[in-house]
Every structure is written in C-alpha cells, then in structure tokens.
Amino acid sequence: MKAFARANPEFAAFASWAKTAPWTGSYAEEPYNGLNSFIFTNASGAEHAVRWSLLPSAEPVPISKAELDERGPDFLEQEITERVRTAGSQRWTMLITVADPGDPTADPSKAWPQGRRTVQVGTLVVQRIEPERDGPCRDINFDPTVLPPGIRVSDDPFPAARSSVYRKSYDLRTAEAEDYPRNEVVKP
Amino acid sequence: MTNEPHRFALLQRLLHWLMAVGIFTMLFIGVGMVSTVTPKYLPLILIHKTLGVALLVLVLIRLALRLYYGAPPLPADLPRATKFGAALSHQALYALMIIMPLLGLGMLWAAAYPVVLYGGIQIPALLPLSDGLHTLLWNAHFYLAFAFFALVLLHLAAGMFHALVRRDGIFEKMALLPLQETTPAE
C-alpha cells in the first residue's frame, strides 16, 4: 500500500479526504460525486464538459468514527433496505457541474475550482432495493461508456480504461457463474 | 475454348478483396482491442462491431452471387486431393465469415450490452441475458478467431502457391486486374 501511494502521488489527496470526510450512517444521506468528465450536448448542439453529482434529499446525520466501528460489516446494506421498505422511496438530485475552459477534464484526481456553473438535470428515485445475491444486477456489466444520446466520453481516459477492464472482469466472472454464492433454498 | 467463364465475375472479385481487407483488419483489431486500456479501446471496439456487421451483410451478398454465378472450373490436371482440400477450405471460410459476426453479436446480446454501431445504428437483441450462453459464445468467438486466422493464412499461402509456383491460372481467376504476364525467360 505504501509503495502504491508513493508511486501514485494523486492518492494522497484521497487519503486525506477519506480521513476527514464527515460520515453518515446511511447511503441515503450521502452525496455522490462522479470523478470522470463527460461531454453533454444541449438542445442547441453546444457541447460542455461536465461532472455529475447526486445530492441526497435525506438530511445527513453525522456520526463519529467510533460509532461506525461498532456497527456490523453489512449495516449500510441493511439500513438502506430497511429505510426504503419502511420510509418509502429515497431521492437524490442529479446536478451537473460545467467545466470552464482550462479546467482539468482529463484528470479525475483533480477537483475543479469552486464556483463553477451547476445545472440540475434530474432526480434519482430509489423505490426498491434488490440484493446482489440472485438479484437482477448481478449478471450485467456496469460500463461507464454505455451512454444515452447527448452524452459521450470526454478527453478523460478513465471511462475507456474502466470499460476495458470491467469487460474483462465480466467475461471472467460470468465464466464462473456456477460458483456464485446463492440464496439457500428453504426446505419445507 | 468453352463457354465457361475463366474467372470470377467482377462483383465477386471486388467483394473478395474488399472482404479480405476487412477480415484482416477485424482479426488484428480483435486482438488489439482486448489488450488495451487506453482511450483507443473505445474506437477499436466501435470499428470492430461496425465492420463485423458490415462483413456479415457482405458475405451474404457474396454467397448469393456465388450461387448465382458459380465458380470458374479448376484446371483438369489439379490432383483430386487438392481439389477436395480447396473445396473444404472454401466452405470453412464461408462458414466462419457467417458465423463469426453472429457469435460476436450473440455474446453481446447474452450479456445485455446494447449493440450500437458507428453512426448510432442500434441492433436489437435477439438473445436473452444468460451468463452461460455469454461464456459459450465468447469462447467460440475467441477460439474460432484463431482458427479463422490460420485458415486465412493457409488460403493466402495456397493463393501464392498457385500464383508464383504452380502458375496454373487459379490465382488469376480471383485477381482484381488481369496480371501483366511478363513472359519469363525459359
């Protein structure tokens, strides 16, 4: 790990963020910031490099590192399943941040300066939680370069790299699908 | 002289050489694209899918032309075993030209990848999501590609053997332009 951090100095920025970030006890209270830049084309055909974020509707309740350490290894999974089941749909606002000319769109380890224009483009509504085991998401590949019309990859080289390695990983794991952990069938 | 054509129809010859370039490109892009994580991975994949579907359309046209025009006869002095080998290898080449794009499409369908070609052309999925089927088709596409490459090289070697060693006029039947026959000093 130390050798990795030495070889990749960009890692230090993540490490310091990870030590100081405010923690919450729920996926539903967290913002998610995409690191990769994509090109969005607007209705008049103009292109902009953007990064997207998903901001939670649920009020974040900060909790301490000590409190987190006491919880079980799967508590985030259990919490979101329980929350959606009892409190109903969870929402996140999708916000895109538009790069100014000269912003480092090709380097996902570099944050863009504060004060960039943001546009609210949609809402993510989570109505149901599906477990990974035997669930419908297990057998598909999450490929960040499969994009709808109007969105394409930018000069950020990482989506292509992710696409390449995720596909390799998908090919390897689907070849071993027989050995996936499965839910035990309850015997009558 | 008989009425039988002494070489393939122009359209057949054009398709042969066009597809030869296309297939060579496909084989090398196929190996290259699975060996890179650089940004050129995406255009390589896009070209591979687009060219693959184009070649599938072309081979079907070519097969129809072959059935319509037939093939010029082989020289009478060609050994029986050679004729048999030629027929067998040509059938195998046709089979692979048809089956390789279908396996490629099939493995994408079975993984629920949207198949989007150059220009945003979408090919609807004809197979359901299935990890077992994906693995089977992926393996077939991968290993048959090497068999295809070997067969292409054999075909190329046979063509050169006829053109340069045996000089029996077989290569000229498929040559795009009539070879300028400079009579060698005997």
From TrEMBL, chain B:
| Intracellular or extracellular location(s) | Cell membrane
Keyword Cell membrane in record: yes
> Which superkingdom heads the taxonomic lineage of this protein's source?
Bacteria
InterPro entries named among the record's database cross-references: Cyt_b561_bac/Ni-Hgenase, Cytochrome_b561_oxidase, Di-haem_cyt_TM
Give me the segments passing through the membrane.
14-35, 41-65, 93-121, 141-165
Describe its membrane topology. Multi-pass membrane protein
The cofactors it requires, by name, are: heme b
GO CC, sorted alphabetically, is: plasma membrane
Q: Which GO terms describe its biological process?
A: respiratory electron transport chain
Q: Which family does it belong to?
A: Belongs to the cytochrome b561 family.
Protein name according to UniProt = Cytochrome B
Species this chain originates from: Bradyrhizobium centrolobii
